[in-house]
Amino acid sequence: MAHKICVIEGDGIGKEVVPASINVLEATGVDFEFIYAEAGDEVFEKTGKALPEETVEKALESDAVFFGAAGETAADVIVKLRQILKTYANVRPVKAYKGINCLRDDIDYVIVRENTEGLYKGLEAEIDEGITTATRVITRKACERIFKFAFELARDRKKQGKEGKVTCAHKANVLKVTDGLFKKVFYEVAEEYDDIKVEDYYIDAMNMYIITKPQVFDVVVTSNLFGDILSDGAAGTVGGLGLAPSANIGDEHGLFEPVHGSAPDIAGKGIANPTATILSGVLMLRYLKEFEAADKIEKALEEVLAAGLTTPDLGGKLNTFQMAEEVAKRVEK
Ligand code: NAI
Ligand code: MG
After folding, report:
1. Is the CB of 74 under 6 A from ligand 1?
2. Which atom of ligand 1 is nearest to the CA of 260?
3. If residue 134 lies in a helix (H) or strand (E), which one and from where to where?
4. Residue having the nearest C-alpha atom to atom 34 of ligand 1
5. What is the pLDDT of residues 8-54, one digit of tens each?
6. Is residue 204 flagged as an active site residue?
7. Which among 68, 139, 318, 327 could disulfide-bond with 9, CB atoms 3.0 to 4.6 Å apart, if both were Cys?
8. Residues of CATH 3.40.718.10 domain(s) within the chain?
9. Neighbours of 36 (CB within 10 A)
10. Nearest Cα to 256, choosing from 145, 93, 96?
11. What global pTM score does this model have?
12. What CATH topology corresponds to 1-88+241-333?
């Protein structure tokens, strides 16, 4: 049976990197049924709704969602969609590919970001003129769920020859109640995984360590806002946002998207790097248990990157579709 994929291109370069990556997905010969849906600034301007009900319905009834980027409406679109689909784990691999100008060539870890609460719960208020608040929500239930996910991921990676370690990043020294709980539950869950090494760092120091010793990390788990910030920095160590993919995973749904946004500074020029979105497609294929097709794309992409057949952000001369086409050609072979 065909995999039913809800495709949301969204705004800006989403309209370029998503169709280019769909060409690559189609080159695998895997049976897909693509269902297109709208979300983002453009549909908001037309209809007053950034995330139309119809889009939510299509996302809920698909096997997976393939998302590009939203613009200024990102909070009402992608943050909402992650919550509606209950995709509690935001998985962001940080990997050095050959041919890319990375900090080191042995960087290979995964950031697991809690996706449903923290400061992104959306509980903001203006309690008086000039006085605003945001409520940071950390619950034991969401902590247990995200830590189990991180430890299971570390176990899977250990089977593939990785170290088998989970690093927890928090700020429990200042956010004593919320991150106090976060850290406490981390070590409780760790007790169920005595085959996996554990460590924890304060998020500010962690931010330095991903630059000074990125090669020592395997799985890094953190809360929502910290994970958002940490993962863009991490992307910068392995070639930039044009290369950073992500998977949003829950018990019932999966949503796959590049880490970057709509990039208005380069939108419409055809120069956006499709790699992050192609790699998000690879994560989607693995989620759909299409392992062979996933490996094929990743290998083809590795060849294309190593050969310098890239968009200008990586020093190449190709446009978005040409680069994706180089990958698709190698997948078809
Ligand atoms: P951004 O990620 O769109 O761009 C940051 C920088 O990275 C820009 O210089 C951009 O040109 C570059 N870049 C991003 N993707 C690239 C690619 N594929 N190839 C080459 N260069 C790339 O973040 P920014 O500029 O902070 O936000 C722009 C808009 O995107 C905002 O409206 C923001 O709300 C939205 N946004 C949406 C997200 C989402 O839908 N998941 C995530 C982040 C931002
Ligand atoms: Mg972000």
Report:
1. yes
2. 2
3. strand 131-134
4. 72
5. 999 999 999 999 999 999 999 999 999 999 999 999 999 999 999 99
6. yes
7. 68
8. 1-88+241-333, 103-237
9. 12
10. 93
11. 0.94
12. Isopropylmalate Dehydrogenase (3.40.718)
